[in-house]
Design brief:
Elements lengths: L5 E4 L3 E5 L5 E6 L2 E4 L4 E4 L3 H18 L6 E4 L4 E5 L2 E2 L2 E8 L2 H7 L6 E11 L8 E2 L1 H6 L5 H24 L2 E15 L2 E7 L7 E5 L9 H4 L5 H12 L17
Antiparallel strand pairs: 1-2, 2-3, 3-7, 4-5, 6-7, 8-12, 9-10, 9-12, 10-11, 12-13, 12-14
Helix pairs in contact: 1-6
Bound molecules: uridine-5'-diphosphate.
The site of uridine-5'-diphosphate (UDP) has 14 residues, from strand 9, helix 2, strand 12 and strand 14.
Length: 253
Amino acid sequence: MARRKKIYEGKAKIMYEGPEPGTLVQYFKDDATAFNAEKRATIEGKGVLNNRLSEFFMTGLNAIGVPTHFIKRLNMREQLIRQVEIIPLEVIVRNFAAGSMAKRLGMEEGTALPRPIVEFSYKDDALGDPLVPEEYIIAFGWASQQDLDDIVALALRVNDFVSGVMFGVGIKLVDFKIEIGRIWDGEFVRLVVADEISPDSCRLWDIETGQKLDKDVFRRDLGNLTDAYTEVARRLGVLPTNVTHTTKPTLIN
Ligand code: UDP
């Protein structure tokens, strides 16, 4: 097969030119990084699991009317997506205090927040993705006030959907990060959920035991990352061996 043109290579994924204009192929690598890429490893099987899990969530979001960049999964590690212009923000939604929020405010990890909190970091690895207020985002033209209102509404719908699906399989969605892209439909611009939704970008805790089933297992050396992600995939019924994307989540008692 002819080599495809690589458009961009990030820490965990590669983007290739897609088969039609306006499409890209998103390839999931096994590479894991943390602490602004100071800690790195290759974790066999991670890319395959994240491809499946992101497919599962993006397909579900599309089905309930939350637009995403996802078109279809192509194979074990690749999915076809719509090409978007990524807004240079990490959109973070938090249901419970953890990570940088717990540290910044001296809160115990796991403290329930009074309501979901949406915050924004400016996507810039060299600066360590600094937290930014809306005022900066608008003043520097990264997004308009209207975009921000739409982004918050999208992020909260993603939060309700993913929290609900996870709750159904005994997992608490503590927080997560999404990215948002712009797509031009003629003269109209639409905002869609982009990037990925996977245990790389969420904090997922077992409701009963509190066991971490996300990238903190790697960040904090808590065990085998592939085992943790496999457990999430198993509970959702999206293990590579028994998957179609119509598989329903399995309720556990
Ligand atoms: N997150 C991410 N990519 C980043 C930063 C954060 O996917 O570059 C996710 C992270 O996995 C967690 C949520 O966003 O689910 C909130 O992360 P936090 O701000 O607490 O940062 P961290 O503690 O991960 O540095």
